[in-house]
Amino acid sequence: MLWNSLTALALVAPSNALIRFGCSQLVVDRLDPLVEPGNTPSAHLHQIIGGNSFTPDMRHDVMDPAKLSTCTTCQPADDFSNYWTAPLFFKARNGTYKRVPQKPNSGFEGQIGGMTVYYMQNQLADFAQKAKVKAFPPGFRMIIGSPTSGTRAEADKFPQLTYTCLQDMSTRFPETKNFPKKPCPAGIMVNLRFPTCWDGKNLDSPDHMAHITYPATGTFESQGPCPGSHPVRVPQVMFEVIYETKEFNDLAQWPEDGSQPFVYSFGDQTGFANHGDYLFGWKDDALQKIMDDECFVNCKSMRTQSIEAMNSCSVSRKVDEDIGDSTWIAALPGQHHSEKKARSYHA
Ligand SMILES: *[C@@H]1O[C@H](CO)[C@@H](O)[C@H](O)[C@H]1NC(C)=O
């Protein structure tokens, strides 16, 4: 019987919707339009992808990226959203830092740095589910994770923010909550899955998280129900950020105490403070149409642009400082007391 039902599933067309696409780097700059709107510079450095209307201040009453952008670094031609995370640095034994470059997933060769973005209606590769999701409205934004999480318990408040130590580009397991403790031959992949239940009313909230939450029981993948306070099931937004660590994998350059050498731009050496920001900016109802289309990765309803067009979109940096791309810098940008703030994880 089981064999029969599996066969039947294999013969029908996938009924789930999931899009997965690459976005090239838009800019790496010390700006934080959600947490510190207007501050130029903000406290720490970010790496940003998406629409070129990205500016230091993006309060939703002021702007809609889909209306103000003229290009996007993302593959879908109608996605002017912005997505950002804190970049990773390598800390040398002499205390200086270099920024770790990002590289595309396999299949997205040619893309300059950036990330891979997913919008999931259902669990990856579960073709039987038929649940619907409501696309985000204009002005919607959210943050997941916290730059102040310093312990495993604090990190566990955000269940799906993890790291994968890439043995090769197809490694997907295991995932850890802390930075890998050993060199990763093909790089470090940071996985950020956002909550999938929305209160249905607020485009934002003071901490940029209260208007969203996780399913009441189970997970998005297991189709756990959304709680009454946040009843609207939205797509699961996921980022994969891959760091090319090969320049830094020589153990002779790692700390002598056996700890690992990578540190976020705001000083976290544990990895527990993994966090990401999302600012919705799809044109009109393009995202809803794709989600309703129940297509898988290559969706006819998703208008795409070439990698050349993605790579040719960028904005110039507003904060003029050395961010450690080619030289070793004495302190993380904006973090002049980084040695005091830095937390290391030896367990
Ligand atoms: C610090 O260490 C890096 C990496 O080993 C090296 O390239 C750089 O020259 C060193 N800087 C100083 C000032 O010693």
UniProtKB/TrEMBL annotation:
Residues 32-282 form the DUF1996 domain. The keyword Cytoplasm does not apply. The keyword Signal applies. It comes from the Eukaryota. Residues 1-17 form the signal peptide. Keywords: Signal. InterPro entries: DUF1996. This is DUF1996 domain-containing protein. The lineage of its organism: Eukaryota, Fungi, Dikarya, Ascomycota, Pezizomycotina.
